[in-house]
Each structure stands twice: as structure tokens, then as C-alpha cells.
Amino acid sequence: MIVTLTINPAIDRIISVDRLAFEDRAYIKAKRESPGGRGINASCVIHSFGGETVAVLISGGDAGQRLEGLLQGCGYRTTVVPIANEIRTNLTITDRHGLTVNLNETGPALSAAEVTRVERMVREALGKASWLLLCGSIPPGVPSSFYGKLVAMAHRKNVKTLLDADGAALREGIEARPTVVTPNQQEAERLLGRTLLTRTQYLEAAAQIRAMGAESVVLSLGSRGAVGAFADGLIEAVPPRIDALCPIGSGDALVAAYVWSIRRKRNPADALRWGVASGTASARLPGISFASLPETEEIYRQVEVRRVE
User: Alpha-carbon distance 267 to 262, whole Å?
Assistant: First the structure.
């Protein structure tokens, strides 16, 4: 069982327009709503690949009711922690050329009692888990130490952990020594306090983040693929060139496919290859969509994996 936590879920409102241009009008061609949040997205991909997963999430207000309705046909189990305040709604606008604007709300404030209930639900879910994926931003009222606390809890139960976060939650979570952390380029830059522009800088950043406490690091670089820092060295995974329609969510697909592959006894290099393939294949799809296993396999065969000497 792979357990995911989304403590700041959302309704993703996706609007497709003819074109996005500065100071000019755009015409809406289609619009839809879908359940959003990094952990929810990861569970969606894991389930579609045939893995067993349960998604733990909060829900509150009218938006929360819509979220729960959208998740009813997801096919995987969910554990919902009710809260008093309304969950957020995010807006994504994308055009036919792949240009995308993503506008996210901060999220609802949680009380101390609600944070405790989330922790209790995660603890209960760990009983049958092999992995715990801690995904996404933390809303107001949740301490920055929360992910680190859950990493330590999972360690005590011999459950592997993946941390996919930003800011103080990422920094403090790394100190708890998760199995793998998966920052994107911008998150890594904020963590390290410097700009990353070159291949050498990406490799150095992955190694430095691993030295901060993580057992492994997967640094996602969008269309440039990913860099992995593992116990046996550094590895690059370079995807083929594609026409990206919407890259939003591709990092979530990478995270999910990486853990799915590791659970199938693949080595980290091959898991990195699967992750990059899933993220790349998903970026080819319109809106916030995730590639199927056959679509991912097509890209997997084209991903180049190189060990850095």
C-alpha cells in the first residue's frame, strides 16, 4: 500500500483558451473541474498504473463537498479528514500552444485539533503501508515541522517516505531523514538560496540536498528531465523532445511513477527513468491530465539514463 497525504487539496478549475497574449483578449474553448493536490495526483497515477494506494486528505466547505464528489469515481480509497473552513480553489489557464498560467489560493486555516486528526489518520493508514508520500504545500495553522514529524513516525513503523514540499516544510522535513525528497528546480533554488542554471549546478544541488539528510534526492528539471542523487552516485535521466501542452502536474506524475517503480523492485536509476517518462508523457496532454501506463511506456523507451562519473 502506498499512502499519500494531501493536507492542502483543491478544486482545480481548468480553462482552455484559444491563445494567451499580454493585454489582449482570449476566448474560452473549454472548462472543467477536477480534484487537485499533489498527493491526490500521485494516487491517481499510482492507481492507473495498477498500484494500490489510499489518499488521505482534508475537506471542508462547498468546495470540499465538490472535491469529495469528484473523487467518488476515482477507483482508489480515500480517507477524508473534515475541517471547518473551506478548501481552496485553484485556477489554471492554458492555450493550444502549451502556454499556461497557474493561480493557487493559499488554503484554509486549520485548528490545532484538526492538525491532530490528520496526524491520527496518517498513523492509522501506516499500519498497512510500505510508502508514505507527503505531498504539496501546508496551509495556515499547520506547523512547518509537521512533515518532519510524520517522517519520523513512518520511520518508527518501518515505512519508507517521500517528501515533495517547499520552503520551511521541505527544509525541516529533510532534517528528519526521509527516504527520498523530490524538489523541482525552483524549490531547490529556494532551499539552497541560489540560482541553478547549468548542468553542473543541478548535479551539485542534488548532492548538496542529499547531504542535508535525505537518503536519496530526485531533482526535477521539467523538460530537461531529472537528476538523481543516490547512495551509489549521481544519475541523469534525459527525456526526448516533445510538444508540451500543459506541464502542470507532470512533477506529480514523476513522483508517483518513481515510487511505483521502486515498489516493483526496480533500481533507483530505472525508477528515475520511469518517473521522467511519466512526467514527460503527461506534459503532452491537455489541461491537468496524467498519462496512462502504455503512454508512459512509449516515452520510457526514449528516456536516456546516464551515470555521472
Answer: 7
